[in-house]
């Protein structure tokens, strides 16, 4: 049985060695200017150093260029890919077809992963990209489990899914928080970054929704973190190629502990399914204990159909 890759998104280069020792197989890094909702930013010099370090341990590294691409960013993206194409990067992660075209033009030898957060919802769409030379597609986190399994069954290439972390539920290229505060008459001297810890509170559901701004605009996340640590078996059986842990909005210590737990879960699920079934729930409970305040764990959308009701 094939062992799926375990991907993590580090905050900085100082975390990488510890995450490798914790069991990470691959890393997603990049610049905020070109990558969407990265856990941390890796400017060009840091990126080069990180790639070198990751390769010393024979692990994989993927560079994110999956931001929404306005016209003003296209020339900069060309230059960026020119700068990094000689590095031993395992793949570029794009979303915009324009970024795909630029990557093909500037660095046709580089592998590509399609990483659109919302559009990868069926096997016809993912096969469209496989037919155009893409090696992997990242499925939308809104997909139910049965749809993920069906898509992998008919997919012509690799499939990646989010198994742990926050799901973005809203994104705008505009700085909505800053504009709102200005409308309220407040003096806004800086962008409302993730370090500010801003949250929207829903009194009906009693949930807190993290919100921050960066170079890509405004991002609002759901009120809980998806966790599938005790429910990986069917994904492994169908051959899902990569499980992703997203470190955005999380501490370094949290990311390290979650990586260790998923390394144990994946290995045990393959080597001793009976034991995995016995301890899976205990692993889930252990992760519940280290959750940040106001952040519950749940199954995301894997068991949650979309229901529309008329009032």
Automatic annotation (TrEMBL):
Q: What class of enzyme is it?
A: hydrolase
Enzyme Commission code = 3.4.-.-
Q: Which Pfam families match?
A: Peptidase_U32 (PF01136)
Q: What are the GO MF terms of this UniProt record?
A: hydrolase activity
Report the superkingdom from the record: Bacteria
Instruction: Provide the species name.
Output: Turicibacter sanguinis PC909
What name is this protein filed under?
Answer: Peptidase, U32 family
Q: Which InterPro entries match?
A: Peptidase_U32, RNA/ubiquinone_mod_enzymes
Q: What UniProt keywords apply to this chain's record, in alphabetical order? A: Hydrolase
Q: Does the keyword Transcription regulation apply?
A: no
